Amino acid sequence: MIDEDSTASLAIPMDPDRAFEALSNSRRRRVLLSLSRTSDTITAGDLAVEIAAIENGTDPSRISSDQRTTVYVSLTQRHLKKLDNVGAVDYDTRSKTVASTDATEPLAEYIRRLQTACYKPDTEATT
User: Fold this and answer.
1) Between β-strands 42-43 and 89-92, what pairing exists: parallel, antiparallel or unpaired?
2) Residue 17: pLDDT band by 50, 70, 90 thresholds?
3) Domain ranges of the chain
4) Which residue has the higher pLDDT, 111 or 120?
5) pLDDT over 70 percentage in the chain
6) CA 22 to CA 45: how far, in whole Å?
7) Mean of the pLDDT values across residues 4-11?
8) Does the domain made of 16-115 have the CATH classification 1.10.10.10?
9) CA distances (Å), 74 to each of 64, 95, 123, in order?
């Protein structure tokens, strides 16, 4: 059971539809989780390397230029702007840096809770 104090700390200062929009893509969820682990701004380039490493199941130092570029373009042309538009992050298009907003940590906490609560059910082979 969730008590009132923990529910209040998870209040997200945005419309529910905007929150669901922010969380509807795995790259946007990874941006929010990355930002929630730092108090500094993060460059789109650093986010691209981190996300490409996760998506490719490898160490960030082993990410190829093509893998990084694919994620970078996706982030800068779509996902970071979307997160900024809904108020989930503060994205500076000129410097290509991303900073947290009041909504970042509560959204990230919901992501962490869902990741913990959800599981992929075993499927039984049909014979």
Assistant:
1) unpaired
2) very high
3) 16-115
4) 111
5) 90
6) 20
7) 62
8) yes
9) 16, 16, 33
Contact yes or no for 44/80 (Cβ under 8 A): yes
Tens digits of per-residue pLDDT, 98-107?
999 999 999 9
pTM exceeds 0.90 for this model: no
Q: From 22, 25, 16, select the one nearest 91 (Cα to Cα).
A: 22
- Dist CA 95 CA 83 (whole Å): 16
- Give Cβ neighbours of residue 83 (< 8 Å, ≥ 6 apart): 22, 28, 31, 32, 89, 91, 98
User: What value does the mean pLDDT take over residues 8-13?
Assistant: 79
Q: Classify residue 2 as left (phi > 0), alpha (psi -120 to 50) or beta.
A: beta
